[in-house]
Write a structure and sequence with these properties.
By secondary structure, the protein is an alpha/beta fold. It folds into two domains: 15-60; 83-167, 2-Layer Sandwich (Alpha-Beta Plaits). 40% of the residues lie in helices and 14% in strands. Strands 1, 2, 3, 4, 5 and 6 form a six-stranded mixed sheet that branches. The chain is elongated.
Amino acid sequence: MVDHVVEIRLPSLPRRPLLLLLALLGLVALAVVMAGAAYLLTARPASHHAVASASASRSTSARQQVGPTSPPGKPALTRRQTSVLILNGNGINGAAAAAASVVGRLGYRLRPVGNARRMDYPQSLVMFRPGLRPEAMRFAHDVGVKLVGPLDGMRAGAIRAKLVYVLGR
């Protein structure tokens, strides 16, 4: 049996060092934010220079540009000179053939229609060969498609069309 109980008190940490530690951490975080802002402010003029030189070179090679940032410009090819491959990407039987009749009436040259590799495209899209963004933008406007981009997942040499129209849901 224990005759007496010994109570041991641990010293409590004073609040002042804890507040100093939190203030120091806040100052370090503020210094990191300020350094990042200073970096962004000093890096911006250099990026403007790069953009200016890129736009100067873009004007000389606008037809070679690919992607959503390439200048749309005016189409160099007529609708009759623009061939289109139509692929069914929605799984609905006859969708590509129906689209082909509409596209043909608009004056575009048609390549044989077919099926896309997958049938779950959520929306229709138009893809284009390098340098043909203006033609793709015109075609997308003609058929009411909002998604336009460079050939993705297809080699330009593997298709015999200038544009690819993938039908989505």
